[in-house]
Write a structure and sequence with these properties.
Two copies of one chain form a homodimer.
Chain A: E1 11-18, E2 23-29, H1 31-38, E3 49-59, E4 66-80, E5 91-97, E6 100-101, H2 104-107, H3 110-118
Antiparallel strand pairs in A: 1-2, 2-3, 3-4, 4-5, 5-6
């Protein structure tokens, strides 16, 4: 797998914050994914790609009670290809740290968690934020 | 002022979290704003628009330690027009709550805070998240 080109220019599905990782994230989608979200289409069609850059959560130096992105921790993504990834709900999962793929052990943890928690949403946690 | 059309399709500058408002936000920019960010151009050129939807921060029902967008609280934006808004650093400020502009008292609080805290960044708090 390679990081999808130009993902930083994609549209926003939603944002999230994770306390245990002390991170702030944005979830971006390619055109196929955004169209599916906006038309409430499930399962996502083949070709849909979601990408989630996770930044360290840091205190704003300029405004109280506010947290902003620090350094980029990693970039996760999910690619829908119902044949290629049939054994993992039709999704391929990837994590890149400093531009390089994480090891296989990390990737092996992705699907089991999505499978247990969000099977009814085509294995995708993120909902579209209006 | 009216809400800029199609802003939800704009690219992402960064995200933020505010504890005192218990909110998660994304900061989006139109093409002029994104080009300025990516080329480190300050001040922002006329025509740059930044928009910030703020959602209620709610616990994910599906994953521990994780917070996601709840309802949309309001949408803030800044429009650069150095002549029209000369008295407020070249920026016009707007907040919309359920599609309707907030009252004048709310708007009067925008610039003073930006002026005090981020004068050296053309009155804009948000930095581009890589």
């Amino acid at each position: 797998m390679t990081i999808p080109k130009g993902y930083r220019n994609w549209q926003t599905v939603a944002v999230s914050q994770r306390d245990d990782k002390d991170s702030l994230r944005v979830i971006l989608g390619n055109d196929i994914a955004m169209k599916a979200y906006r038309s409430n289409t499930l399962p996502f069609p083949d070709g849909a790609v979601l990408v989630k850059p996770s930044w360290k959560r840091v205190k704003s130096a300029e405004f109280d009670n506010t947290f902003v992105p620090g350094g980029l921790m990693w970039v996760d993504f999910m690619v829908k290809n119902s044949k290629k990834y049939a054994s993992t709900g039709g999704w391929g999962f990837g994590r890149f740290i400093e531009g390089k793929p994480a090891d296989e052990k990390v990737h092996a943890t992705c699907f089991p968690c999505h499978q247990v928690n969000v099977k009814d949403h085509d294995f995708v946690f993120t909902r579209y934020a209006p």
